[in-house]
Design brief:
alpha+beta; four-stranded mixed sheet
């Protein structure tokens, strides 16, 4: 066969191109490595996006593990102790925490009217923990009480009259309902429980008398975020139970890379599980860094107190992320990595400030002791509280005798000018045991709550000073 110069030239160019292209891609990861990297990337995205869903699902599973079920009135018959391992619960109130399920139709939540010092502070959230409505004096019923009708996705029937209709985009959700008490005496606590038990939850097709009350006080309620493959197992349970929202459909294919797809079981071999474990740890570390950055700027100038969640996240949670150009899932991941529930109108019924550093800017050390000075005339209609949480888990510190001190705590020692000092740390200051919150050597963070916050707080004419280390 006759070979022309042209054909030799073409062959040479082709061979050179193949060699060049081979060299160009020779340093790229193998197909197996690329698959692993894609799983890890998708898994990190899934943790950030799915944090509120997993947070909810873990609480639901904890309720079920303690004998509860959907459409029942789960409650704590005394203020929670360290065994409530949800994220940053309040040990200075009585919790009622019903989980609703509307797969078989609308569910009714009845709230009683305010009577004397008895009132409910709370909100109804969907399974993504977006606020549907607030209840009680700061809610729609304005303290008059009412019947809230929670309707399922796609509900198009005409609801009966006399209800406050609350449409939900998810079949499941929950309500966080705090029955407030004036003091921490046994009588006041018992009164708050009795008043709270006037709340009812039942299917619209049923009646109030069928409400089931399940007391979970002093039982282990494990709901901290697991930064390993268990996160994805929980997220899969959520995806199987709930409809896709339009805003989240971009995640459908991404979740498939980690093995989560509606209608299919979640399975992962040993290598994939190891990849998911590592991705969850990476995501958790990233979220914690975002959390730390959220303390600047502070709420009070010159202090270290802040609500470390972006304003657009707070607004999004109360509006179902209505802004078509904004979906702040990183801020949302921070929020639900440290807490649960959102309010429709944050600041109306309650407000929160966190601190992770002392006055000198150093992180709180669980082996040291600190003093929080709360000035007199705190601007609250109900009470304030200061609670120490484990810095790593954002849950109550395990095995402690108590976790919080509050203006409604029994036996608190007050200063002559009406101010109060709360001591948090490893040792009890002499003569101040009643004002002390132990930390058992764990590094911690402090959450300051204001229930019924007043104008002076938001105007900042009353300022909460930094926490100081006691030398």
């Amino acid at each position: 066969m006759k070979t022309t110069l042209a054909s030799l030239t073409v062959a040479l160019v082709t061979a050179t191109t193949v060699v060049a292209e081979t060299a160009r891609y020779s340093d790229l990861p193998s197909s197996e490595e690329l698959t692993s990297r894609n799983i890890q990337r998708g898994a990190v995205e899934a943790v950030v996006w799915g944090m509120p869903a997993v947070n909810f699902e873990l609480m639901l599973q904890a309720a079920i593990a303690n004998g509860g079920a959907a459409n029942q009135m789960l409650y704590w018959s005394r203020p929670v102790n360290w065994k409530d391992q949800a994220l940053t619960p309040n040990p200075s109130t009585i919790y009622f925490n019903p989980f609703y399920d509307t797969t078989k139709g609308p569910v009714v939540l009845e709230i009683p009217p305010v009577e004397g010092d008895s009132s409910i502070t709370g909100s109804i959230d969907d399974a993504w923990q977006c606020a549907l409505e607030d209840v009680g004096p700061a809610g729609v019923d304005q303290g008059k009480g009412g019947k809230y009708l929670i309707t399922p996705p796609g509900y198009n029937e005409t609801p009966p009259g006399g209800y406050i209709v609350v449409p939900s985009d998810t079949f499941q959700g929950f309500a966080i309902l705090r029955s407030n008490f004036k003091s921490g005496s046994d009588a006041d606590i018992a009164g708050a429980v009795a008043y709270g038990k006037r709340m009812k939850i039942y299917p619209l097709s049923g009646n109030a008398n069928q409400t089931v009350y399940v007391d979970v006080y002093d039982k282990m309620f494990e709901a901290t975020i697991p930064y390993d493959v268990r996160f994805f197992e929980s997220l899969n349970r959520f995806v199987q139970a709930e409809p896709w929202l339009t805003r989240d459909k971009v995640m459908i294919d991404s979740l498939k890379t980690v093995g989560i797809a509606k209608g299919k079981p979640f399975t992962a071999d040993a290598k994939t599980r190891s990849t998911l474990d590592e991705a969850a740890r990476v995501a958790g570390a990233s979220i914690d860094k975002w959390y730390e950055r959220g303390f600047s700027p502070p709420f009070f100038e010159g202090t270290h107190w802040a609500l470390p969640v972006p304003k657009e996240t707070i607004e999004g949670l109360s509006t179902m992320f209505a802004d078509p150009n904004n979906y702040p899932i990183e801020g949302r991941a921070v929020y639900f990595s440290v807490a649960y529930f959102s309010a429709k109108h944050l600041g109306a019924g309650q407000f929160y400030l966190l601190a992770i550093d002392d006055k000198s800017g150093q992180p709180f050390d669980g082996k040291k002791t600190y003093r929080l000075h709360v000035p007199p005339n705190a601007p609250v209609k109900l009470y304030w509280s200061a609670t120490a949480y484990d810095r790593k888990t954002h849950a109550l510190i395990r095995e402690t005798s108590r976790s919080s001190r509050a203006s409604n705590s029994a036996g608190m020692q007050q200063n002559a000018d009406g101010s109060l000092d709360v001591f948090v740390g490893a040792r009890t200051p002499a003569g101040m045991e009643s004002n002390w919150v132990p930390t058992n050597g764990h590094d911690f963070e402090i959450l300051f709550r204001l229930y019924g916050p007043e104008k002076a707080f938001f105007d900042k004419t009353w300022i909460l000073p930094d926490v100081e280390e006691m030398k």
